[in-house]
Design a protein that fits this description.
Length: 158
């Protein structure tokens, strides 16, 4: 089903695969050791270390399951697949925040790759949605807790 597709870059796909391999190998081994060590402390009914290790194991298995699901639905996208005259996924967008007169640049990415600290903006975020399909010179507005902020698109690149 196309609606279930998870669009990722080749680099992110490889990072997900590496994380999955690490969790299935080293992660499971580490958890098994923690459980075995906690078991050696005796009575499991009042063993906080055992409970914590079992909880960590549950979280690890949930993460593994999510990674496997994401990888099963992953479709690799490339910046060259999209025109560079409008804002699309994988566009680099240079913006002017008109409220504070400051420039910022974002890479438009899928929700799975979004990382605000690295200026990777999800195309499904409020600002990301406002930017999609726009061209240089367009002004978009986005609502934030402090009110409405206007951004002017100064540049689009790959």
């Amino acid at each position: 089903m196309a609606g279930d597709a998870v669009y990722v870059t080749r680099e992110h796909l490889e990072a997900l695969r590496a994380e999955l391999q690490d969790l299935k190998g080293r992660g499971r081994k580490d958890i098994a050791q923690k459980i075995a060590e906690a078991r050696s402390h005796g009575d499991l009914s009042e063993n906080a270390d055992y409970d914590a290790a079992k909880h960590a194991q549950e979280l690890l298995e949930i993460r593994i399951s999510r990674l496997e699901s994401t990888l099963a639905k992953a479709q690799v996208i490339n910046a060259s697949d999209f025109p560079d005259d409008k804002v699309y996924i994988l566009s680099r967008v240079k913006l002017l925040n008109k409220k504070v007169n400051a420039e910022i640049e974002y890479l438009m990415v899928s929700p799975e790759e979004a990382d605000f600290e690295q200026n990777k903006l999800s195309v499904t975020s409020p600002l990301g949605k406002a930017l999609m399909g726009k061209v240089v010179g367009d002004v978009v507005e986005t609502k934030v807790p402090a009110g409405i902020i206007q951004y002017e698109i100064l540049g689009i690149s790959k």
